[in-house]
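Check these lines:
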Amino acid sequence: MIGWANSGVCANRVVWAVDTCGMANIQTPNGSGLTVVLVDDEPHITHMVARKLMQCGFTVHTAMDGQQGLSKILEVMPDLVVTDLQMPYMSGIELATRLFNSAKMNHIPVIMLTARGFAIEAQIQELTNVKSLLSKPFGTKALIDLISTTLSGGAGEMERCA
């Protein structure tokens, strides 16, 4: 049995809990898992991250590039998008910009996965809904923690995790 070390509610929409092992289990008030669209052109990263997110109770949909990601986001209207920055056909920045400029999707927060040491210009941050950057390679625990922070409203300003 898992013991819960910390929990809370954000805007009557998200209930989150962090178990004593540091894993997040984030749910809507009715107990269903939240939906994440994961967009990355590296299949091993997509597989590893999707598996871990599903273990944490998320419903996960994946896409291999920004164009597929945008289609999947329109289809499922997720609670969060995790996307790579550099991908074929449509970059993560272009994807985040399209979400931000869409009245239907501009509420969806984005976590951007980047190459180590890459920074997004402040102007681009202001024109997208990118809440956090996470440098590759990363541990899944770091991503889960960042998702917890983002969905609980703790990532109001751009957060960078190296």
